[in-house]
Structure formats: C-alpha cells, structure tokens
C-alpha cells in the first residue's frame, strides 16, 4: 500500500490536426491520496478522470509534474514496476483461458507458490459468485461475467500498492452493481488497499468512498466526505453536481450585511458574513456573486413571513414533492414533504446557516481572499 502524492501535475494531449494548440486535459494540480484511503474520483464525462488515473498507474507520462508513492518518485517507472492493479471500463480477459486461470495469471506472474495461488483464486471466485464456473473458458461468458473476471484480476493480488478502478461497473447489470460495490467496500475494509474508484455517477461515488474527489474541466474542485460535499460545496459546480436535485444557485448582490436576491435580503451566518466583509464584496463590482442553497434546506411558509415566490409546477418524487418556483427572474427548486399543504401564496424561509455565498463560483470563506481557478 502506498500514499500517493501528485506534485505540479498537468497533462496536455498532442494537438490534433484541426486544433493549433493543445489544451490542458488536466490543469496543474497538487493532490495527496492517503495510504489505505478509499477514494472516488467523480466528475462528468471528459473532465480528465481517466487521464489522471492513467498517470497514477503509469500508462501515461504526464506533460508536467511528478508522481510519488510513499515519497519515492515513480514518474519514470512502468505500471508493472509501480506494482499497481488497474481495472478498466471494459473487460480485459484471456478468452482461451478458464475463469480460474484468468484469475491466477497475475499471481503466477509474481511467482507466488501454488497453494497461495489456489487459495487466493478460490477466495476471489467466491467473492464474485463465480465458483461454479471456475473451469469454463472465459470466451463462453456473458459481458457481465467477463467484467467480473476483470474486476477479480484487479483484486486477486493482496500485495499491490494501490488498486485503480476506471468506471468498472459500466457494463454490469444494475442489480449486480450494488452487490459488487458492497464487495469492494468489504475488500477495502479487509486489506486496506489504497483504492481510487473513477465514476461519473454520484450514487456510486458516495456509497463506495470515504472521500470523494470532485473534478470538472481538468481541475479538482473539492475533496471531502459525502457529507462535506453536500453541506459545504466549495464550488457551485460541486453543489449542483452532487444532490438530487442539485443545489440552487441564484445571482445576487451583497450589501454589506445580507445577500440580496431579486430585491430580497437574505441573512448570512456570522462566519460567512465575516468572510464576505474581509473580501470587500460589497464594493467589488468585478466579481460574480451567487447564493447557493439546497432544495432540502428551504422551507415553504405562507403569507408575508418569507421571500415571496411563484409556483411554476409540482413534481411528485414519491417520498416528497419537488416544487419548481420562480423568484423574480430566476428559478429554484424546493423539496416539500408529501402530504403537507402548499399555500396559495408561497413564501420561502431561508436558513442563514445553509445560505452559502459564492464569488466567481467559489465559496466565500475565511482565508480565501482571492479566487484563482483550479486550486
Ligand atoms: P474522463 O475519463 O473524465 O471522461 P478523459 O481523461 O478521458 O476524461 O479525457 C479528458 C480530456 O482529454 C477530454 O477532453 C478528452 O477528449 C481528451 N483526451 C482524452 N484522451 C485523449 C487522447 N488520447 N488524445 C487527445 N485527447 C484526449
Ligand atoms: Mg474516462
């Protein structure tokens, strides 16, 4: 197992014929992955997840920066020398070998003795529910089962320094996904390998990982526990990407005491207010100010008590209702308990502790006095 440190890492792929200049697939970044951590790397398609993973495994040489495992610079080492297991999105199996032989392959390569190999292969077969098919040729298996073998080949060795998964459950049947994710979590608890699990699916990320690394457009925007990402998104992208539906983001101004959305003054908590004051946001005209508030943290009230909004439509989500509302020129969504009445004149109560202020998409917080992208 290893702690992984990325220092000044960045990557550009060579420019294609149509583009004159190569753009960054990964913007310069520093990132530490703790030894034994279970991480999910979460972000939309094309944001750079595979690029980052392949640089860690050694399949790709970064255009800038260095990769360290436990302090040792491994940037020039091959994947094999780095001693990493990697599972890809699509099955990588030897069709002519049996299921058991496919699993034994990485162990034979490492020169393990026959007894150890046999017992590890058996454990892995059990974990994947493939015991009864051990002797079958991989060729005859379904896509699902082939991908399970791929997963098994990544998990069969216990001596690897890290296991990297690149959207490994994409081709797996939905009902099996949950089961395999649970298995992965168990394996992590048993062996405490450093694991990085790439996905674009927040449910997958939040159920697998202790820490989620959220990426967008080649930058890491936040690293945190699922709760931290939900309660305190450091970037509006994180707020909108995580949650179902995501955080509401409303353009606003700051008058020195309150966030002002469409003429309505919203109270901020003391910490937020101090940070906004320290940054002089009331007089800074060049910065884009927004309020972020989760649909779960807004309360519907009647009459003149809160911020008056207009009801656009009601969506029934089963366990609760989702109200689509209009506040001045902007729209927002609110989760409303099922069965609770919806007043004719709707107003909203904003809780200062869950009303977050963003300047140029980044959370306004103590010590964060400027707003460069990509840090
Ligand atoms: P993700 O895994 O998050 O979907 P990738 O790391 O595959 O994202 O890609 C990041 C960006 O780099 C994308 O814009 C993609 O088009 C580009 N890219 C990926 N691989 C190559 C390549 N071999 N050559 C040129 N551009 C690439
Ligand atoms: Mg990818």
Structure overview:
The protein has about 375 residues and is an alpha+beta fold. The protein is built from ten helices and 23 strands. The strands form six sheets. It has a six-stranded mixed beta sheet with strand order 6-7-8-3-9-10, sandwiched between helices. A hairpin with a 2-residue loop joins strand 19 and strand 20. Helix 3 runs parallel beside helix 5. The chain is globular. The C terminus is likely disordered. It binds adenosine-5'-diphosphate and magnesium ion.
Give the SSE layout.
Layout: E1 4-12, E2 24-33, E3 38-42, H1 49-57, E4 64-69, E5 72-73, H2 79-82, E6 84-87, H3 99-109, H4 114-128, H5 143-155, E7 162-166, H6 174-191, E8 195-199, H7 202-208, E9 211-216, E10 219-224, H8 226-231, H9 236-241, E11 248-251, E12 253-254, E13 258-261, E14 264-267, H10 270-278, E15 289-293, E16 299-302, E17 307-308, E18 310-316, E19 320-327, E20 330-337, E21 346-349, E22 356-359, E23 362-363
Parallel strand pairs: 3-8, 3-9, 6-7, 7-8
Antiparallel strand pairs: 1-2, 1-4, 4-5, 9-10, 11-15, 12-13, 13-14, 15-22, 16-21, 17-21, 18-19, 19-20, 22-23
Helix pairs in contact: 3-4, 3-5
Bound molecules: adenosine-5'-diphosphate and magnesium ion (MG).
Spatial gap, N to C terminus: 27 Å
Radius of gyration: 25 Å
- Which sequence of strands runs across the widest sheet? 6-7-8-3-9-10
Low-pLDDT runs of 5+ residues are 371-375
Category from helices, strands and their pairing: alpha+beta
The distinct ligands, each listed once, are:
adenosine-5'-diphosphate, magnesium ion
Number of separate helices: 10
Approximate strand percentage: 25-35%
Tell me the number of strands.
23
Oligomer: single chain
Shape: globular
Helical content band: 25-40%
The mean pLDDT is: 92
The largest β sheet comes out as: 6 strands, mixed
